[in-house]
């Protein structure tokens, strides 16, 4: 009997211990450390006892609701000082008592802010438990989650709220309105469901990993323009306005030396703001209904002058270097209001093909407007000579009888006599031309075949990739062209012939960098400029040729604005708008990682490591590669912010397979008539080598992702290998033949991807190398993403592979993004699109399906 009684006691004890453990666990993780700001005094407004139209008086709880700091951007640290009206309030560390309660020893009717941070290592559902005596509001990441508007004196109020949190660091803010006594509260976080034991980590440090909001939000520098003397810079900015999908864009003028902002056009209705070629003057347009007027503003005199009015269908305008006149275009859309029509040529189905643009000259002093061009084809201005006497303009038209199915004419016009000379006619590979400083030569930017074989350096490759930009100097008297970049591997993006020092300043894609170069036509030497960044987006040369302004970024540094002094050869940072937004963000390490193929060719790549990387741990791997034929630059953000993937706990391997521009013509020409065979083998080979040489990679948890041509590669890869545990294709091409025929630029892109090959003469390429016709070989789980109104790669490319894989019983998902084209640009939809990618990889590479299941629960349809 005693034995039975003892056993019963032991059993009861076990039950009691288990119950106690469950009770303790049910409280979750109590936040024990806080940053408390100095208490501030609140005052009730005048007439607070008077009832308003809703028969309500003003209560103390209203003060709690209304008086607050900008909590959406607040991330304080210990001993940091924050402004409150005219006083400074500092943040000090406090801890809870033995029962887990914060005890505020503050006078009655004071407002106290308390902040703490916590991180989740995966997407999770969390139950927030707030137990509070005083009035309080609780915010997570700036969003109000719990409100308590009663003063409790005898017992605290307990409020629970279940929320979902994305992976990463979160800030919790509690605003307390104190009472005469019992200003205590407790906050605990309780994971819901089967979550890892180390799901939540608390901290008082505002240091965080990169998030999608850090990538998309904040003020961004877009481009720059220099005044004629190079002393003033006009910087273009944009900023998202969450939670809306709106974007604000504006310009600011600042002194280069001092950084002083002289003028801002924020909120202005002005458009097309540019510097005049002489003096500190700007010009701009104003629209009145369907009419446009042009103005000049002189900063020295502070005066505005209207120089033209009532222009219908206004397009763009360009100043002559003399400043005596400008050229503007008028665009006429000839495809409006049709109900049925005959398509006249392949481009006729494209929006804007029937739009025609013609040039007009506006004399500034007299206000006289003269029409310069007319006809059936649009005329596109290319340049104006230094003396303002001559202009260059081009016309182009499709010609389906001869590869590459487009022909260009280039003309020179004397704007005084209206005499027109033909520079070239029916050029098969057109180019963009600008005058030399003396006007006797042209600098022509085009592809390798712009002037026939003289521009080719493609080795044994049969066709050049004319997306690989080249430069030529064309003599206007002899009509002879000389290639100047024949053995210069970087691909030319833009070039300006400086009329002051006679040098040519070039922006070029150099492998995975985008750099500025100087070319000296006399010595025939190229020199890289000191741009202090990895990727230059755009650049602008002052009229006097003294300075270059540009915007540029690096892997872990967003776009900033710089000015390069041509004489001192030094760059000066003039705007860093994302500095505050990213000051607490921790980036992981990046480094180059290349491999050599059996034929001796080196395929370059780079690695993104998670922050706080530990080589003794195992990490899932994501593999990325180029779209189109452009290499994936060393830029910040972008369509696939690889730093963000690393911040979510992945190692990322980015490689630049054959066919990319910026590595020399022979390398880029490998894109022609290959459609992924060489590229796929290099990706597979590189991935295997990467796994074998990096023991911290989980070999069975490797994913791949790409878009457009990269989406095609994702699809094709799965027909040739099973090394991937998950594959994501955005706007991928599943059938080369249907893309060739249906995509807006399908057949024209194919000029440089499958030159002279067609569905009827190269079945091996168009059919056998398409994933759709090899769908039965695919074993990898695959996510197909697509904008619902994609005109570049039509939605059907994902639809038909989805249908094939579903009928074959494969693991496939298909997500459309409503009303988005080839790129996902809408702010809210881009976040949802990115979260879809993150959730899919979490499901297959981390064995964490919760986020995906929450986003896309199965429906009984």
Automatic annotation (TrEMBL):
Record keyword Hydrolase present: yes
Any Gene Ontology biological process: proteolysis
Coiled coil: none
Keyword list, A-Z: Hydrolase, Signal
Domain of life, per lineage: Bacteria
Signal peptide start and end residues: 1-20
Gene Ontology molecular function: serine-type endopeptidase activity
Pfam families reported for this sequence: Peptidase_S9
Protein name: S9 family peptidase
High-level lineage: Bacteria, Pseudomonadati, Bacteroidota, Bacteroidia, Marinilabiliales
